[in-house]
Design a protein that fits this description.
five-stranded antiparallel sheet
Length: 90
Amino acid sequence: MTGEFSVCQFFTNGMYEYVRRYVSAEEAITAFRHYTDNVATKLGFVDRVIVTDGGDCTNIEWRRDKGFTYDGVHWAPSPRSEYHPEQSRP
């Protein structure tokens, strides 16, 4: 049986890549955690990572400049977002 979730990462050059397709929720979240905290993300090559369900609805999203959200309105900071309280501002 296949899962209902997919994980996609979006690069700063406008390209995107599905890194998981039709996997379980557990596998999707494990991949989401990896792709929001890997070398490409730390170097600034990745702008956004999302998890979508079988209905193509975004369930969780990470944006480099904002952090994490589940609804697109409320954002939780991440270590690589400019809004994170532990990061110094220029």
